[in-house]
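Sample entry (145 residues):
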Amino acid sequence: MGYAYDKHVPSRAEIVVGMLADAIRRSTDRREFAKFVDSNPAEADRLARDLNTDKATLAAVVARSDGRPLLFGQRLRLLGIDPRWLRHRQPAVAQDLARCCTLCNSKTRCAHDLVGQPESADWRAYCPNESTLDALANSPDAGRI
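Predicted structure, serialized as tokens:
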């Protein structure tokens, strides 16, 4: 049985080292992706086409990705929609949600809202996925949790 005091609270040094490691990983990811695009332009085009986007958007996603789980999955669950159902039944919608979420400038605010006030509707004012999420939440066909 776990108690609250058993949970490890990272020190400031651990947090800083973790942030530095994440920054290095993101930088490496961007460089590796740029090398991949330069070395394999046809394959990069094919990848972009498979993901229903372009190479510039793929590069932006790689550059903006922070390694955290995508927030839209958490938002989907709060709206009562099963993310696995969405990925399997509507993969293009799931990909578009993921792309918009990754490129969003409000990730910090979203993450804060999901933790601090998950039932609040404040996210609707800044979320680029608001209309799609709203449509899914109101769809009788959506996979419910």
